[in-house]
Amino acid sequence: MGSAYTPGLRVSPDIVIRKTRRLPLKGQVMVKVGDRVVPETPVARTELPGSAQVVRAAQTLGVEPRALAPLLRKRVGDALEKNELIGETKSFFGLFRTALNAPVAGTIEAISDTTGNITVREPPIPVEVPAYVRGIVVEVLPEEGVVVETRGALIQGIFGVGGERQGALRLVVSGPGEALDEDRVPADAAGQILVGGSLVTGGALRRAAEAGAAGIVAGGIIDRELVAYLGHDIGVAITGHEEIPLTLVITEGFGEIRMAERTFHLLRSLEGRQASVNGATQIRAGVIRPEVVVPLAEGEAAAAPTPQDEGLLEIGTRIRVIREPYFGRLGRVAALPPEPQPIPTDARVRVLEAELDTGERVLVPRANVEIIQE
Predict the structure, then answer these.
(1) 161 exposed, middle or buried (CB, 10 Å; 0-12, 13-18, 19+)?
(2) Which pLDDT value is given to residue 2?
(3) Residues in contact with 123: Cβ distance below 8 Å, sequence separation at least 6, in sequence order
(4) Would you identify the CATH topology of the domain 2-24+151-295?
(5) Does the structural domain 312-371 have CATH classification 2.40.30.10?
(6) Do the domains 2-24+151-295 and 312-371 sit in the same CATH topology, yes or no?
(7) Residue 272 CB neighbours (<10 A)
(8) Is 33 exposed, middle or buried (0-12, 13-18, 19+ CB in 10 A)?
(9) Per the confidence metrics, is the pTM higher than 0.85?
């Protein structure tokens, strides 16, 4: 038996969840401690600076940069409407005229008598951060955001894509071993989070998007089908910013993998409840898990406590690998060498020998696996 540094996926019917909702830039917090919020409640807002547009003013008017200023009708700090006249030149007793018009709406930020260019700053872009989950504001981060607390069910996945969305959970398969294909996507899926079993196919993703589904939760997905749906390869950085119409949460890994019984049964018990989902994933330092959050109703009785992983490994323990090159692969512990072993990075770490479900036996750092409760 050995100690495992396993973060583990949380699958709990009743847990206190805190979500930090932070602005990208300093701004205004719109709620206070004790306020009750729903997912759509704006809790903070700010304005992002607009893009800067460089106007080649002297070149357009055909003058030297130092001769530009007297020809302008606008000065630094003046507001502009798109196509508004900024300046002009006249020649041959006013018979010929060259006009300089604003390419965009905005404010004049700078006029250079060295380059003859004018910098126009487009209007700021308003940004609001919503609460994401139903709950209570328990902390205010001045000028930055808030912390929202809720009590409810939390289901973490191993991989996801797509941002924060809300919808009612709806099971569309009868068991954790059934695949969610396009024929199982209901026509009335708009605004719902569909729950599959062992797999979601690329066809199901497209059909669900066409039907207006908010998200999909399933055990596995074929990587090439996901790449085909996204239109680009999957990078190693954080996911969650993809421009796709739904959010995908994968609970087990790549390939067709039966969803864990515990996860499927919890999702089935929550069918019809409003959930918040987020596909954001980061598997390097500062692990971020995709998730499904289902707040309990106010005053709802607590569910029975869920046993927690003890963080121990032994021969036969069911595991999932959470780092490359075997990311998402499932297997069992076959051996626990007691001494640190060298790995490709030249470091010496404690490892385990895993027999993957494919039959392959591999050495994996113990920090790169998590225990799966069966």
Answers:
(1) buried
(2) 35
(3) 50, 105, 106, 107
(4) Glucose Oxidase; domain 1 (3.50.30)
(5) no
(6) no
(7) 9
(8) exposed
(9) no
Look at the chain and count its residues.
Answer: 374
The residue type of 179 is A
- Distance of alpha carbon 302 from alpha carbon 286, whole angstroms: 30
Spatial neighbors of 148 by CB under 8 A, at least 6 apart, are: 18, 19, 21, 37, 43, 131, 132, 133, 135, 136, 137, 138
* Residue bearing tokens 């609001």: 128
pLDDT given for residue 309 in this prediction: 40
Domain boundaries, the chain: 2-24+151-295, 52-121, 312-371
* Residue found by looking up tokens 């699958």 in the block: 11
- CB-CB contact of 198 with 174 (8 Å): no
pLDDT score recorded for residue 237: 67
The owner of tokens 């709990």 is 12
**The domain over range 52-121 is classified in CATH as 2.40.50:** yes
What's the gap between Cα 5 and its chain centre?
25
Q: Which two tokens stand for residue 366?
A: 């113990």
The SS3 call for residue 32 is: coil
**Tokens 């626990």 sit on residue:** 336
User: Distance between CA 192 and CA 222 in Å, rounded?
Assistant: 23
Contacts (Cβ under 8 Å, ≥6 apart) of 371: 4, 6, 8, 309, 311, 312, 313, 317, 318, 319
Q: What is the mean pLDDT of each run of 10 residues along the chain (374 residues)?
A: 48 92 96 96 95 94 92 94 92 74 95 94 96 97 96 93 96 95 96 97 96 96 93 80 94 88 92 96 79 85 46 78 82 86 75 90 86 67
Dist. CA 285–CA 282, nearest whole Å: 8
- Please calculate the CA angle 293-299-303 and round it to the nearest 5 degrees: 60
Residues 298 and 372: their CA atoms lie apart, in Å, by 31
